[in-house]
Amino acid sequence: MLKKTAFLSLLVVGLTAITPQLLSAKDRRGEQNEARAQMMAGKVKSIRSIENQILPRMAGSEYIGPEFDPSAQVYRLKFIRDGRVVFIDVDGRTGTILRQTR
User: How many CB atoms lie within 10 A of CB 100?
Assistant: First the structure.
């Protein structure tokens, strides 16, 4: 009985730890789908176009990847430079850099 209870407790803890990651992956697919839909409708530039503009400016940094905020129509590109995370927010409609953290 004790082994069964311990196993169930570990199972619950494990599932609790995994669930946010699953939700995050699902949310990311939603972001990607929304970005694609807005790009196809001509509302925002493609992520490839934005990356082609920004990546050369970030030479020496490791590119982690993009996120898309559909309500603001903003791409957030994530990099690592000198052990620090750098975010660059780009207007998806114009390609203008809105903010950059250092």
Answer: 15
